[in-house]
Amino acid sequence: QVQLVESGGGLVQAGGSLRLSCAASGRTFSTYTMGWFRPAPGKERDVVAAISSWSGSSTYYADSVKGRFTISRDNAKNTVYLQMNSLKPEDTAVYYCAVAQSFGRAITKPYNGIDYWGKGTLVSVFS
What we know:
Blueprint: E1 4-7, E2 10-13, E3 18-24, E4 33-39, E5 45-51, E6 59-61, E7 69-74, E8 79-84, E9 93-100, H1 103-106, E10 114-117, E11 121-126
Parallel strand pairs: 2-11
Antiparallel strand pairs: 1-3, 3-8, 4-5, 4-9, 5-6, 7-8, 9-10, 9-11
């Protein structure tokens, strides 16, 4: 069982920045593919960003956040981050951290390969 704890959410003005963190339990964090998800209004969760296991050499970003968000990982700290810059009101959502069975499954609907979810952290962007 892997426990995921997100932090770093909050209230920010449009154009501002936040950095989300997700701390994972377990001794094999480096082997996990990690992702950040958020629900679209009235819809299921959708991937925002994902990073491959080990060195994190592969990353993925949803079109809506490309150039503004950056995902990274620190295996020594069992933590994955989401740096969010130039935030917009439409970025407002609960952001969930997840462990995926593979990079491909992390970025492909319907995301059947998600093994663990965090409880989420709320990001609110006001104009």
